[in-house]
Amino acid sequence: MELPEATIESYKRRLNFERINLEFIIRFLKIFSKKYPQKKIIIRPHPAERINIWENICKDLKNVECIFDHIPTNSWMKASELSINSNCTTFFEAYMMNVNALNLFPAQGFEDLEFPILNEIADKVTNIDQLLRIIDNPQDHNFYKKNPNLKKYMSNFEIGKCSVDAILTEI
Fold this sequence. Notes:
- By secondary structure, this protein is mainly alpha-helical.
- It is 44% helix and 8% strand.
- The chain has seven helices and four strands, in the order H-E-H-E-H-E-H-E-H-H-H.
- The strands form two sheets. Strands 1-2 form a two-stranded parallel ribbon.
- Helix 4 links the parallel strand 3 (83-86) and strand 4.
- The longest helix has 31 residues, at 5-35.
């Protein structure tokens, strides 16, 4: 069975988006490792990613460590000074726990692949200079927007609404 051309193009576009993000992160990690030898970054790959790719990226960076364990991500975020995410729901988790976090989105022209709720919470970081400025002066950065409108994404994001009731209504 052959895939429709539109599906193939969609996959190619998604792969290009991920390639741009990965190249950005690799550039950032190399700069970070040299510029901030006293700081440490923990790379916590997504469970669907191949760990050996990240281990290979990190192997020559003394203050960058790749950890792939079964500890929930929120434990790692709570223990961090800053959580750096790339268009991932872990950014939303960090927001909910009031952990300083950044949402990286260097792939310009791929805005249709963004999770809209993340833009509701905070402005995205799109380049390395911006990222380094925030790392240098986190006290000068407003990590989250004031009063984001999350109700349009989660109907039970208010007191008195219960997701169980909504599910039972649908069933």
